[in-house]
Design brief:
There is one protein chain. This protein has 172 residues and is an alpha+beta fold. It folds into 2 domains: 15-70; 98-170, no CATH class. Helices cover 40% and strands 31% of the residues. The protein contains 4 helices and 9 strands; from the N terminus they run βααββββαββββα. It has helices spanning 18-45, 52-71, 112-116, 155-170, and strands spanning 10-15, 73-79, 82-88, 95-97, 102-109, 120-124, 127-131, 136-142, 147-151. The strands form 2 sheets. The protein has a 5-stranded mixed beta sheet. A 4-stranded antiparallel beta sheet has the order 1-2-3-4. Strand 2 and strand 3 form a beta hairpin. The longest helix is centred in the N-terminal third of the chain and has 28 residues, at 18-45. The chain is elongated, with a radius of gyration of 22 Å.
Amino acid sequence: MKIPPTTLVFREKQKFSRLLRWLLILDAVVFIVFILLLLSYVGKEHAKPLPAVVMVVILTVPTAITVLFWISKLETEVRPDGLYIRFFPFHINFKRFTFEDISEYYAREYRPVLEYGGWGIRYSFSGRAYNVSGKKGLQIIFKNGKRLLVGSQKPHELVAAIDSIIKGNAEK
């Protein structure tokens, strides 16, 4: 019996760590307060007040970045027709990677900062990475030689889910 392609074999949702999100809020507040204090000090003695649009940008940009981190999430799904990844809000729809295009895959520990420059959607000499926290993930090597690392808190379960599809299809 063939499994419908919409059937989920594995699903994981991850967000940036709570500590990182709170640090970003604190950072945004400190930045905004610092800029406002600096502008009030400089503005009194020497310069004209800043235009309203500049003030709006100063207040909006750190707030927008904080909100972006707060709502961001990495979703990983294994379905019978491929591996699906979505890094919301950057990917509205899931990106599908077919099992036929994958040469090799395995769970591994990695060094997010040293190998990829941190967390998020990252590009480096090691390949591309989607990660939000931790240092474990699924390493994928495609038949065309490209590499993708998908951060996961359950990398061995993810490998087992892919194995169940690929090896299950090979036995038929």
